[in-house]
């Protein structure tokens, strides 16, 4: 048991320098060239442009590309992880890091997931992060403003999905009541029932691109459990329209003996949530470091 977990975040923190760490590695640069050629989008150039980074399609291409490329740069230099975990679209990236599909297969799966979701998502939709509300109060907010629970991060930390006008109205009430909330830079209400029409076609696509044997388990976002390769098509497609139980994923990670969590970035959201658990685990984002060498040194020191 290595004690290391690799965490792949979801949308919302894309930025112009999100590929800088990966580009320090020749292996990662080669991976990105094939990924970009397969998807038809030069993801490095897209990120550097700073334009339209938060549309659903671009976001998914960028997130998966950056995370898997960063892991490609690091995987030969770090111990074998105990587990991979992924938040929202980061779950697809986590399977990519674990070796489920090669770069050309990922270059097919990632844009198709985004396309299928865009085709069924309502116009002018998004997501709202909320902290401090009890479950009953949250349920009342959802019923009043036609929102749905999308992600469970903690007992009092949730993400809701719905139409932007309803999100704004709900946010005004939540803020007036003295609670924290924030509209996320996400263009669709992922993990809610309005996305269910995208589930069957994505499940079918996954069955046509069978997953290879994983190098380490990947936790399913819908239940926090490690599944077999044969279950990936079901669980990974289901999370498009079912709540992500991130709290369960974090708890399972700790139960597996993990003491160090490396978040591949972009952003530091997952590291912060592990910190908030108050458990004996050290979590940092790759973006806390200027070089790949710095990441490797930190992981090795903490696992020693």
TrEMBL record:
What keywords is this UniProt entry annotated with? Acyltransferase, Transferase
Q: Where is the Malonyl-CoA:ACP transacylase (MAT) domain?
A: 7-298
- GO molecular function terms noted in the UniProt entry: acyltransferase activity
InterPro entries attached to this UniProt entry? Ac_transferase_dom_sf (IPR001227), Acyl_transferase_dom (IPR014043), Acyl_Trfase/lysoPLipase (IPR016035), Mal-CoA-ACP_Trans/PKS_FabD (IPR050858), Malonyl_transacylase_ACP-bd (IPR016036)
Q: Which SMART domains match?
A: PKS_AT (SM00827)
Pfam families xrefs: Acyl_transf_1
Name the source's superkingdom.
Bacteria
Q: What is the protein's given name?
A: Acyltransferase domain-containing protein
| Source species | Herminiimonas contaminans
């Amino acid at each position: 048991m290595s004690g290391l977990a690799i965490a792949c975040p979801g949308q919302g923190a894309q930025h112009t320098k999100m590929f800088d760490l990966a580009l320090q590695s020749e292996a990662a640069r080669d991976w990105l060239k094939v990924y970009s050629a397969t998807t038809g989008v030069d993801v490095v150039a897209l990120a550097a442009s700073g334009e339209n980074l938060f549309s659903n399609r671009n976001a998914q291409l960028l997130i998966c590309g950056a995370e898997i490329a960063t892991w490609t740069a690091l995987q030969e230099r770090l111990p074998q992880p105990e587990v991979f975990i992924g938040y929202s679209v980061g779950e697809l990236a986590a399977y990519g890091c674990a070796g489920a599909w090669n770069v050309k297969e990922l270059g097919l799966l990632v844009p198709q997931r985004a396309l299928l979701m865009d085709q069924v998502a309502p116009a002018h939709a998004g997501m709202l992060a909320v902290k401090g509300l009890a479950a009953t109060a949250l349920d009342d907010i959802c019923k009043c403003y036609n929102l749905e629970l999308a992600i469970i991060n903690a007992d009092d930390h949730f993400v809701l999905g719905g139409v932007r006008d309803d999100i704004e109205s709900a946010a005004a009430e939540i803020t007036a009541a003295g609670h924290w909330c924030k509209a996320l830079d996400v263009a669709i209400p992922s993990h809610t029932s309005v996305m269910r029409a995208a589930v069957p076609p994505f499940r079918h696509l996954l069955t046509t691109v069978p997953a290879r044997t994983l190098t380490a388990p990947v936790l399913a976002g819908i239940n926090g459990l490690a599944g077999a390769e044969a279950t990936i098509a079901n669980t990974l497609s289901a999370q498009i329209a079912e709540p992500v139980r991130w709290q369960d994923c974090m708890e399972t990670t700790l139960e597996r003996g993990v003491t160090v969590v490396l978040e591949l970035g972009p952003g530091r959201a997952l590291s912060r949530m592990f910190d908030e658990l108050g458990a004996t685990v050290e979590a940092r984002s790759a973006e806390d470091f200027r070089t790949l060498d710095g990441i490797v040194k930190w992981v090795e020191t903490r696992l020693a």
